[in-house]
Amino acid sequence: MAAGFFVSKTLGIVSMILGLGAVATIIALSVVYSQEKEKNAATLLPSITSTPATTPSKATPATTPSKATPANVTNTTPLSLIPEHYAVTLQPFLTKDASGLYIFKGNSTVRFSCQNATDLILIHSKQLNYTEQSGFLVSLQGVSGSSPPPITKTWLETQTQYLVVQLQGPLETGKSYQLVSSFTGELADDLAGFYRSEYVEDGVTRVPLTSDASDVRHDSYRHFLLSHTCEANSNSVRASHRLSALLSVRQRDSRDPPEAPLPCGVLCSPMGSGGSGLSHGVGGFWAVPRRWGFSCSPGGGGATLLTRPVPLPDQVALPDFNAGAMENWGLVTYRENSLLYDPLFSSVGNKERVVTVIAHELAHQWFGNLVTLRWWNDLWLNEGFASYVEYLGADSAEPSWHIKDLIVQSEMYRVMKVDALASSHPLSFLESEINTPAQISEVFDAIAYSKGASVLRMLSEFLTEDSFKKGLQSYLHAFSYGNTVYDDLWTHLQKVVDEDKIQLPTTIKGIMDRWTLQMGFPMVTVNTKNGSISQRHFLLDTESTVERPSAFNYTWIVPVTWMKQQDGAEQMYWLTETSATNQLFVVTGASNWLLLNINVTGYFRVNYDQDNWNKLLTELGTSHEAIPVINRAQIIDDAFNLARAKHINITLALNTTTYLGKEREYLPWSAALDNLGYFRLMFDRSEVYGPMQVSPRLPQVSPRLPQARWIAGSMAGWYNEINAISTACTQGVPECTQLAAAFFNQWKQNPSNNPIPPNLRSSIYCSAIETGSEADWDFVWQMFKNATVVAEADKLRSALACSKEPWILKRYLEYCLDPSKIRKQDATSTINSIASNVVGQSLAWDFIRGNWKTLFSQYGGGSFSFSGLIQVVTQRFASEFELQQLEQFKADNADVGFGSGTRALEQALEKTKANIKWVAENKETVLTWFETASS
Ligand SMILES: *[C@@H]1O[C@H](CO)[C@@H](O)[C@H](O)[C@H]1NC(C)=O
Ligand SMILES: *[C@@H]1O[C@H](CO)[C@@H](O)[C@H](O)[C@H]1NC(C)=O
Ligand SMILES: *[C@@H]1O[C@H](CO)[C@@H](O)[C@H](O)[C@H]1NC(C)=O
Ligand SMILES: *[C@@H]1O[C@H](CO)[C@@H](O)[C@H](O)[C@H]1NC(C)=O
Ligand SMILES: *[C@@H]1O[C@H](CO)[C@@H](O)[C@H](O)[C@H]1NC(C)=O
Ligand SMILES: *[C@@H]1O[C@H](CO)[C@@H](O)[C@H](O)[C@H]1NC(C)=O
Ligand SMILES: [Zn+2]
């Protein structure tokens, strides 16, 4: 509509946990409000989101849906209503209503002031039944003498999930009003919004109602709390006691501006509290009794980086939770496996996860809560930041782990696989690209988290960590309790660059826009003969078409660190052109080599002339420690990926692994196993697999690995040991399968005393199930049902997918749709485990195709696990036939849609096409390489 048409845009959620049953009453309430769209002039009216149950909200006759599509208004019109105060009351009911539903009732009152005249109010609202007031869904009241224009129409937009209020005339600039609504919603069991879940305690099934903020896509952005009442019934005296305890934690800080929006979580339950607490002694830890073991302390976490104090939150582990964790202000909620650690059951991987997730959520208290981005299109800055700081926080808590070294493998190489596709996307979207809940859900992907972290790490490295910190602190200080766009961060970093006189080829914005506004990353190629250096957009399939235009023509400003063997010192070069020539890169001498991207601080891949590649391989074969450990992993990973894109020969890539017999470090091994994993996926249903399993070229991969725990006590050492056992058992090395069987039988004879070291349990359970009988499967299933520690239950659940019996796997897939057997939160990861098994893959694919509509409706159209599901089940696809099936699947379900899996499906199609070509072109060479004895 015309100018003067104003919009408010909010996503919201109210969620609550309610316990049924005499003892186990859990009540949690978290109110999560987001998100204004337009700077300084947004209207955030609270909306109450209930479950996306199958019952859509129904517009009444008085609110006949209009043809107006608020979506096109939101993108262009400045917003004009400023929220001042929110009051939300929620009342969950502990018994089913007459129609057999668990419901909650609630009302909300929002006071806001009018900044710019407007006659339209939009509020995000999802599946709530509003109680009509004078024929409208809401009512509007004057405040302090203001008198609002009459409402002419209210209606619900299903696509964008707006409640729209059309007024007869404009609200008056400078006046305040309040919007009042009352509603009912369903407490379903779908892990979205307000939901209920079940758990078994002392043999009794409890039905708590659980809260999840992931419905606003895992991250809250601005959450607005008004006030709340939590009606505790006579069963829950203890619950109300806990409620007050927790409320006191998240009360407003007196420094907060009075109107400051406060993300909030509230919980009342008989949960236990334990653990050492955080180092600053504020946050406590909470979980269902008997589920919590150890809660670890990630030290200052983000606090060491970000000095502005924020209140440290309580940490709560919930029995059912879709996301990993949710950073509500004052009350961070976690999936149990992301908070609870028990040394008797948890592996080093579980421990790493707990430490990093806590550090991640704490980082969000600054980045996300204290300062909030304006709209979801810039989500990457929040998530990338938290994903980067999670390593810094974990490092300060556990310096002996050297966890920062893992970032290259866990974040950068992981995301480069996706970002090398023509169907990737930039870190930053346009605001207009992100409108619907499914689109919002989809932006929570590896690009936002892992590329975000990688690019911020690159920035921190070329600025130095001290200057980076200074800039962050200045940014956080300037925008506390406010909203930003990513440019605001560049501005504050630029100030530091100017103050500290840091030499850069152009401004921070000039550099960073290249990395955030265009997708992908460059391959930097140097020729050590003539010193030429050039860049080019790295695409896994060089023949794919990039449809997304880029203002920068897919060229980057690249911080290239480099060293030569002769000097051994790191140097810096800025590549600002498509190509350049510099004598710096000329290498003379028979053994001298050039190495680019030291410690892989830059987000790019590197290619060399053949001669330099050969020299690097020779160095690996003779004295590999002359090359930094992260770069030894880089040489392997870059080579395999360059070979996949046909920039180098596949045998060169394979040859990077032949020195591994001497390698004792985790990262190079991990890079090799990861890349050979791709070969396994491509060939484990073909004639190449036999020769690959027994190849004389790779004798070191399996039998030698278990021999030593190379770096005793270090995290990398533990991971090496896990890799060794898991690789050896997967390859069927007899010593390994026998070891596994012996351990397993010992356990079966005395189930209450598990002799298997926690680090090795996943591999040993899997091997035992793979080689074992139906009775073994049943035993593990029973242990899974009885498991009280979630770290243990998770290991058993994924091991159950290792069976080689199609009928057992088929039955297990069916269990995934039965929440009494497999919790909804675990359904997609269980299907993923089955799909990863070569026997289970086609079963899982049939299952997903056959049940897509059910999965989609029951497991939440917005749930972000769909992208993982599509990615895993299609990862072996490498034939025309499979491509056709995938295209058919896309066509068949076009009406249902793919929600957060939409982009993953496009990427799966692209990857399948690339795989088809790769297999056709490389199969013979690979077979020959594996069959030939190394020289
Ligand atoms: C939205 O856009 C469509 C087509 O561009 C237009 O017909 C419609 O009037 C617009 N709606 C509003 C509310 O501006
Ligand atoms: C209010 O509206 C005027 C005129 O349309 C516009 O110039 C101004 O930027 C708006 N102010 C805000 C805060 O949106
Ligand atoms: C909201 O509900 C509470 C509890 O039922 C009630 O006390 C309060 O008056 C209601 N507020 C509004 C604005 O309806
Ligand atoms: C909402 O209204 C629909 C249609 O009347 C009804 O089927 C549904 O049960 C209601 N939901 C709740 C939670 O009251
Ligand atoms: C992109 O290419 C166009 C046409 O070749 C050119 O005009 C423009 O300057 C280039 N932009 C950049 C950032 O290199
Ligand atoms: C590279 O990383 C290693 C391991 O983290 C570290 O010891 C070394 O100092 C780093 N080298 C450079 C040049 O930053
Ligand atoms: Zn996060």
TrEMBL record:
It comes from the Eukaryota. Residues 593-913 form the ERAP1-like C-terminal domain. It holds the Pfam family Peptidase_M1_N. GO terms for cellular component: endoplasmic reticulum-Golgi intermediate compartment; external side of plasma membrane; extracellular exosome. Its main location: membrane. GO terms for molecular function: metalloaminopeptidase activity; peptide binding; zinc ion binding. The keyword Transit peptide does not apply. The keyword rRNA processing does not apply. Its cofactor is Zn(2+). InterPro entries: Aminopeptidase_N-like_N, Aminopeptidase_N-like_N_sf, ERAP1-like_C_dom, M1_APN-typ, Peptidase_M1, Peptidase_M1_aminopeptidases, Peptidase_M1_dom, Peptidase_M4/M1_CTD_sf. This is Aminopeptidase.
